[in-house]
Specification:
Elements lengths: L1 H17 L40 E9 L6 E4 L4 E5 L11 E8 L11 E9 L1
Parallel strand pairs: 3-5
Antiparallel strand pairs: 1-2, 1-4, 2-3, 4-5
Length: 126
């Protein structure tokens, strides 16, 4: 009987403590602030600002071509950035070649290559 009394008393004590943290008013926290990321200095140098509705200008990037870790993915590495090359003449983009590509960066595009900033190629020069 004494054992049962201890269990009941312990349960009541724990139940009483569970209510200690409650308040009559709901606790509200301020909304989290969202700070946009700082622009990267690794982006291509010729990225002028655009007005809504205008076509994205071509930029040029020079680097060395290498194969990505996923089949069919072609990368261009520079001193500051690695680009995932989308489109363009694949025959001229052989691994190990140094070349200049012209096109448009697509930093928000999702790909399955898992490497580099997507860059839509318009033209390739050796």
């Amino acid at each position: 009987m004494r054992f049962v009394t201890l269990i009941v008393a312990g349960g009541l004590a724990l139940g009483g403590l569970a209510g200690c943290g409650s308040t009559s008013e709901p606790v509200t926290a301020p909304p989290p602030s969202i700070v946009p990321p700082a622009p990267s200095s690794d982006a291509p140098s010729a990225r002028p600002s655009l007005t809504p509705g205008s076509a994205q200008p071509l930029v040029s990037v020079r680097g060395t071509v290498k194969d990505g870790v996923e089949p069919g993915c072609v990368l261009l590495t520079t001193e500051k950035e690695t680009y995932l090359l989308l489109g363009g003449d694949r025959e001229s983009m052989k691994s190990g070649k140094t070349l200049t590509v012209y096109g448009t960066p697509e930093p928000t595009m999702m790909t399955t290559c898992q490497q580099g900033m997507p860059f839509r190629v318009s033209r390739v020069e050796n």
